[in-house]
Amino acid sequence: MAICSFCYDRQAIAFTTRVVNGESMNENYCLKCAYLSKVPGIFEHMVSAGINDENIDAMADKVEIMMLENGGNGDFQSFFKNLKNQETDYHPFAGGKAPESPAPVREDTDKKEENMPDLEEVRKFFEGDKYATEATGIVIEKAEKGHSVVSLEPDGRHLNAVGGLMGAVYYTMADFAFAVAENCILDSDTITVTQATQMNFLRSWHGGKVTCTADIVKDGRYICLYEVKAFDKNGTELALIIVNGFKTARNKHPA
Ligand SMILES: [Zn+2]
Known about the structure:
With about 260 residues, the chain is an alpha+beta fold. It has eight helices and eight strands. A hairpin with a 2-residue loop joins β3 (about 140-145) and β4 (about 145-150). Zinc ion binds near residues 4, 7, 10 and 33.
């Protein structure tokens, strides 16, 4: 996983090597910086895929989500495959060489199985979380140990007096996404509860589905730290929530 050498903000999806005064320099571009810099061999593909000045920000945000979904793995080619939903045959690393392992395998098969519970079973279990599922209407989209995605189609019940999305909606989504990612291994003898959260509201919501991703940052013996991000339907980041969890014996907290 590499950060863009230009904005130092988004994940890099294209890698080039440039020779300046006999010295070769590696440059990593995020989608937006590759577009703005008109990187040869990449820019043309972006234009033909329909990227333009109007949608580049939303596209760049989409790539960020895609990278999150893939655990930080992703490249230009896989992004365009997703975008166009068809095979592409060009080489993504135009004008340079590919990094040694652009898409490392995250974990071995056994571990994957162990960390990937059955989604329907997880949904069934978390139906017990009535405030999140019934009162609020949050749906679990993805559940694996250390990573989850939940979503909500807000309606009138979720709004504040000025028509915005109530902060508590983000809180509930973040708390629930965290709980699902931490507690989706249903036969585990520990359960993790929320110890502290920090909410950062980044942008206002302008309608449509809200999606939250929860990703583990640090897994300790008794505590863990998660980064939860809320996105709108265009992939624009609305809120960043940091959740600290505390691990305890499951029988102390009956489901
Ligand atoms: Zn960039």
